[in-house]
């Protein structure tokens, strides 16, 4: 076979090109310290690199972002729960103090002052946020748990579900005493009323100062909702005979109820007191409810909320009717709204705690009643003190004036005695109530702590996996510099040798073969 100069030249050029390409390959590796520059260099490495990079990116997202965000959220939650626990513990201590028989004026004033301050703080912790997102309000992270200021034009239609366990006993008082004026004593007037106590079963709604009830229903034996007004109940009369009656329903302002009926409630009657937000049950109605244990559903309108009151949408099915145009009304449905974070492959964690599960809507109302009870006791004892001071004045030193003042004093002392008993009983009940509220908060705090421990373990595991996959990614893609230098040197020598060989081969002519 005849070998021509053209063939030698072409062959030399090809060898030089191959050597040069190999040299450039290792030169590029030297600069980048990567095994390949494009998928076609080594498809196996390229495919594996895509898989490892995707997994590594996900792990880094979990470890550095998702888990960290979840831990920040839960840290904010835990701090708020600890503060709430401290507040409820303080209220519990006030209940213990208020339940004693030996309270003086200073003690009652101290309890009142403390309760007023705690009332302002009780739901404030529910407004805790993480990076501007309210942590206790479910999906509605852009809304606070409570109203930030007094509002007079905000309106809601609220549907509240109640159970028979929500029926409690409450004592009301009529015929409260007063301090006689100079005219009363001059005219010889006796105390106008005689203080009396009236204990009824009642159901307390979540708010006071209700506009009106739009629907009042109970669930019958078949689970169907029926109107309470007109419901038939059975009860035992004084002779032990079973009787059937129809329930009547009336709405009153507290003052009207006190003046018109002197706080009386018919045995088969339900009275709704708008100012206090209470359904007061007659004796037979209460007995029937406690016997049959039906659930109740109450829908009511309320306009105007006080600073610190909870927003209805976080606790109840409700409609925001503030806008005059019905088309612009906003409907809220109460549901579980868990905020789940993906913290690892196939692993999610609900990071949020919902206010309705830990900050009972009754807490504020209970503190209000405790405050009212101690205020009633303070007022009653002040009446006693004022009358005693009148009896010490020289102008009333006469026997007739003293006898008259004694009757006023007896009425005031009777009221003070009732007020002390009411305060003691209410605060004794508050001990168990606030123990229950505390238990809810402690349980929620424990749950958050448990989740925090899981997060810490997951973060540690994700960090280890991140290091493992980073190493695998590096092993797959990166090349040791020492290996690159060896390959680079070999390629460089091969390139130089091909150049030298080509230069000698191409210099030869036909004369070299003669």
Fold and architecture overview:
There is one protein chain. The protein is built from 10 helices and 17 strands. It is elongated, with a radius of gyration of 41 Å. Helices cover 52% and strands 18% of the residues. It has 514 residues and is of the alpha+beta class. The strands form 5 sheets. A 6-stranded antiparallel sheet has the order 7-6-13-3-14-15, with no helix packed on it. Strands 4-5-12-11-10 form a 5-stranded mixed sheet. The chain has a two-stranded antiparallel ribbon with strand order 1-2. The mean pLDDT is 85. Helix 2 (43-98) packs antiparallel against helix 9 (399-477) and helix 3 (105-121) runs antiparallel to helix 8 (362-392).
Task: Please summarize what this structure is.
Helix content is 52%, strand content 18%. By secondary structure, it is α+β, with helices and mostly antiparallel strands.
DSSP E strands, number: 17
Which H/E pattern describes the elements? HHHEEEEHEEEEEEHEEHEEEEEHHHH
In the sheet with the most strands, the strands line up as 7-6-13-3-14-15
The radius of gyration is 41 Å
For the residues shown, what is the average pLDDT?
85
N-end to C-end Cα span: 18 Å
Secondary structure tally, helices:
10
Low-confidence stretches: none
Give the % helix. 40-55%
Instruction: Tell me the fraction of residues in β-strands, as a range.
Output: 15-25%
Give the class from helix and strand content and strand pairing.
alpha+beta
Biggest sheet layout: 6 strands, antiparallel
From the spread of the alpha carbons, the general shape counts as elongated
């Amino acid at each position: 076979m005849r070998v021509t100069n053209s063939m030698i030249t072409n062959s030399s050029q090809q060898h030089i090109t191959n050597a040069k390409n190999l040299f450039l390959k290792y030169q590029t590796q030297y600069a980048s310290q990567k095994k390949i520059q494009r998928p076609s260099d080594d498809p196996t490495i390229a495919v594996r690199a895509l898989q490892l990079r995707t997994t590594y990116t996900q792990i880094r997202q979990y470890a550095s972002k998702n888990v960290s965000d979840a831990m920040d959220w839960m840290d904010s939650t835990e701090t708020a729960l600890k503060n709430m626990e401290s507040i409820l513990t303080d209220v519990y201590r006030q209940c213990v103090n208020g339940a004693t028989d030996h309270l003086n004026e200073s003690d009652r004033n101290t309890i009142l002052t403390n309760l007023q301050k705690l009332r302002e703080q009780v739901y404030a912790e529910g407004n805790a946020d993480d990076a501007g997102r309210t942590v206790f309000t479910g999906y509605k992270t852009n809304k606070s748990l409570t109203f930030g200021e007094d509002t007079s034009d905000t309106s809601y239609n609220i549907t509240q579900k109640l159970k028979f366990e929500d029926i409690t006993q409450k004592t009301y008082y009529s015929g409260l005493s007063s301090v006689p004026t100079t005219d009363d004593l001059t005219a010889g007037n006796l105390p106008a009323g005689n203080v009396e106590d009236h204990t009824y079963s009642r159901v307390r709604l979540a708010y006071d100062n209700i506009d009106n009830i739009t629907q009042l229903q109970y669930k019958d034996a078949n689970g169907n909702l029926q109107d309470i007004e007109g419901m038939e109940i059975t009860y035992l009369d004084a002779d032990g005979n079973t009787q059937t009656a129809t329930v009547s329903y009336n709405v009153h302002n507290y003052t009207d109820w006190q003046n018109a009926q002197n706080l009386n409630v018919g045995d088969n009657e339900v009275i709704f007191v708008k100012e206090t937000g209470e359904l007061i049950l007659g004796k037979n109605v209460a007995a029937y409810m406690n016997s049959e244990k039906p659930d109740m559903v109450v829908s009511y309108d309320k306009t105007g909320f006080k600073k610190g009151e909870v927003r209805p949408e976080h606790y109840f099915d409700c409609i925001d009717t503030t806008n005059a145009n019905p088309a612009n009304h906003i409907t809220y449905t109460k549901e579980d709204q868990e905020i789940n974070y993906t913290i690892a492959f196939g692993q999610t964690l609900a990071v949020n705690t919902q206010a309705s599960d830990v900050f009972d809507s009754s807490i504020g109302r209970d503190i209000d009643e405790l405050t009212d009870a101690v205020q009633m006791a303070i007022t009653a004892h002040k009446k006693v003190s004022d009358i005693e001071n009148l009896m010490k004045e020289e102008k009333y030193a006469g026997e007739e004036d003293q006898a008259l003042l004694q009757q006023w004093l007896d009425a005031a002392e009777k009221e003070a005695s009732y007020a002390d008993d009411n305060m003691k009983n209410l605060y004794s009940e508050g001990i168990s109530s606030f123990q229950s509220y505390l238990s809810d908060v402690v349980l929620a705090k424990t749950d958050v702590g448990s989740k925090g421990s899981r997060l810490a373990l997951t973060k540690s595991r994700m960090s280890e996996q991140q290091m493992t996959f980073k190493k695998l990614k590096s092993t797959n893609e990166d090349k040791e510099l020492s290996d690159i230098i060896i390959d680079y040197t070999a390629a460089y020598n091969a390139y130089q040798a091909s150049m030298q060989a080509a230069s000698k081969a191409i210099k030869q002519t036909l004369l070299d073969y003669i």
